[in-house]
Design a protein that fits this description.
7-stranded mixed sheet, alpha/beta, 3-stranded antiparallel sheet, Aspartate Aminotransferase, domain 2, binds pyridoxal-5'-phosphate, Aspartate Aminotransferase, domain 1
Length: 368
C-alpha cells in the first residue's frame, strides 16, 4: 500500500464541482487581483477567527513581514521567536531588518516555553512571535503577560493553526496580529500561495492594506514604501468554498489523531500532547522516538508510507543564521525535537484501512 503524507487530490474530488465553479466565476469576471472575492474572504476569515479585520496578502510569509512592518519593527530591533518552526517565522524578522532571538521550546507541545522567554528580553526587544506549531496554540496567557509587562507586541504565527483554539479563543485572535498561510498543504489551503493577517486593530489593518499595494491608498500616490503582496481572486474564491468545510475537516483530523493515539499508545513512542484548554487541529500528526528515528523512517518508506521530519534543523543552527553565533547545545529541546520527531500521514480523507496499515507497520518495526 502507498500512503502519502497528504493527498490533496482526495480533497479536490470532494469539492471539485464547487471549486471549479468558483474559479470559473473569477475567470468570467476577469477581475483577478483583490476585488470582491478577496474582500468577501477577508470578512469570512476574520469572522471565523473571531477578529474584526482580515487583510489578504500573497503568502503567510508576507503576512508576518507586513505585520512586523506595520507594527514598526525595524533595523536594530529584536524579536523573540521559536527555533523549532519553518524558516519563515524568523526570516520575516530578518527581512524587516530586525534580529531574531530564539528561545527554547516545551518538549511536550513543541511550542515556545513561556518560562524561558523573559531571560531573552533586552532593551532592544520589540515583539514576540509565538508559533502555533502543528495546529496547536502556544501557551498564550503567560506569553501575553510577559508582553504586557515589557511592552512588547505579539504577532501570532498561526500559519499551521487556523481554527485551533486556546481557552476558547481562535488562533490568530489573541495577539496584536495573527498571520495565516493558505499554502496548498495547509488545513485551509488555496490553489497557489496566499496568506492573511487577522487583527482587531483597525489602524494596523489599514496600514497593512496600504503596505500590500506599494504603500498607496490612492493609485500612483505613495505615502510609504510598501510592496506588491496582494491575494488573488482565484485563491479567494477557492478558499471561500473550502472555508465552509473547514470545521468538518478539522474534526476529521482530530478523529484520525485519536484513532492513531489509541493504536499507538502502548508503543515506545511519545504521542502528540494536547495542552489543557487547547483544541488541536492536527495540521501534522507528529511522533517522537527516543532513538532510531532514521531506521524507523526508512522502515516506513520501504513499506510505502511517506513520513517527514518537521523540522530536521533548528533555526538557530541553520547556515543562514550562523552570524547570530548560536551553537549546538544552546537550545537543547528544539535540537532534540529535530533529532527525534517524524510526522505520519494525516488528512481528513485518510481511510481507516490506511491508518491500520500505518499503525501495523509501526508495530512491526518495534517487533523487530
Ligand atoms: C509556521 C509557519 N510560518 C510561516 C509559514 C509561511 O507561510 P507561506 O508558505 O504561506 O509563506 C509557514 C508555511 O509554510 C509555516 O508553516
Amino acid at each position: 500500500m502507498k500512503i502519502s503524507i497528504l493527498d490533496l487530490k482526495a480533497q479536490y474530488a470532494i469539492i471539485k464541482k464547487e471549486a471549479d465553479a468558483a474559479m470559473r466565476r473569477v475567470v468570467e469576471s476577469q477581475n483577478f487581483v483583490l476585488g470582491e472575492e478577496v474582500s468577501a474572504l477577508e470578512k469570512e476569515v476574520a469572522g471565523y477567527c473571531g477578529t474584526t479585520y482580515g487583510v489578504g496578502v500573497a503568502s503567510g510569509t508576507d503576512a508576518l513581514i507586513l505585520s512586523l512592518k506595520a507594527l514598526g519593527i525595524k533595523d536594530g530591533d529584536e524579536v523573540i521567536t521559536s527555533p523549532f518552526t519553518f524558516i519563515a517565522s524568523a526570516e520575516a524578522v530578518s527581512l524587516v531588518g530586525a534580529r531574531p532571538v530564539f528561545t527554547d521550546i516545551d518538549p511536550r507541545t513543541y511550542n515556545m516555553d513561556p518560562a524561558l522567554i523573559e531571560k531573552r528580553i533586552t532593551s532592544k526587544t520589540k515583539a514576540i512571535i509565538p508559533v502555533h506549531l502543528y495546529g496547536q496554540c502556544a501557551d498564550m496567557d503567560p506569553l501575553k503577560e510577559i508582553a504586557k509587562r515589557h511592552d512588547l507586541k505579539i504577532i501570532e504565527d498561526a500559519a499551521q493553526a487556523i481554527g485551533a483554539t486556546h481557552r476558547g479563543r481562535k488562533a490568530g485572535s489573541m495577539g496584536d496580529a495573527g498571520a495565516l498561510s493558505f499554502f496548498p498543504s495547509k488545513n485551509l489551503g488555496g490553489y497557489g500561495d496566499g496568506g492573511m493577517i487577522v487583527t482587531n486593530n483597525k489602524e494596523l489593518a489599514d496600514k497593512i492594506r496600504v503596505l500590500r499595494v506599494h504603500g498607496s491608498s490612492e493609485r500612483y500616490f505613495h505615502s510609504e514604501i510598501g510592496t506588491n503582496s496582494r491575494l488573488d481572486a482565484i485563491q479567494a474564491a477557492v478558499l471561500r468554498v473550502k472555508l465552509k468545510y473547514l470545521d468538518g475537516w478539522l474534526e476529521a483530523r482530530r478523529e484520525k489523531a485519536s484513532y492513531y493515539n489509541e493504536r499507538l499508545k502502548t508503543l515506545p513512542l511519545i504521542l502528540p500532547h494536547v495542552s489543557e484548554y487547547n483544541v488541536h487541529t492536527y495540521h501534522l500528526y507528529v511522533l517522537k522516538i527516543k532513538s532510531d528515528l532514521e531506521k524507523m523512517m526508512c522502515f516506513l518508506t520501504d513499506a510505502g508510507i511517506e513520513t517527514r521530519t518537521y523540522y530536521p534543523v533548528p533555526l538557530h543552527l541553520q547556515q543562514c543564521y550562523r552570524f547570530l553565533c548560536y551553537k549546538k547545545g544552546d537550545l537543547p529541546q528544539a535540537e532534540a525535537a529535530c533529532d527525534q520527531t517524524f510526522a505520519i500521514p494525516v488528512y481528513p480523507e485518510l481511510k481507516k484501512e490506511q491508518m491500520d496499515y500505518v499503525t501495523e507497520k509501526i508495530k512491526e518495526f518495534f517487533r523487530g
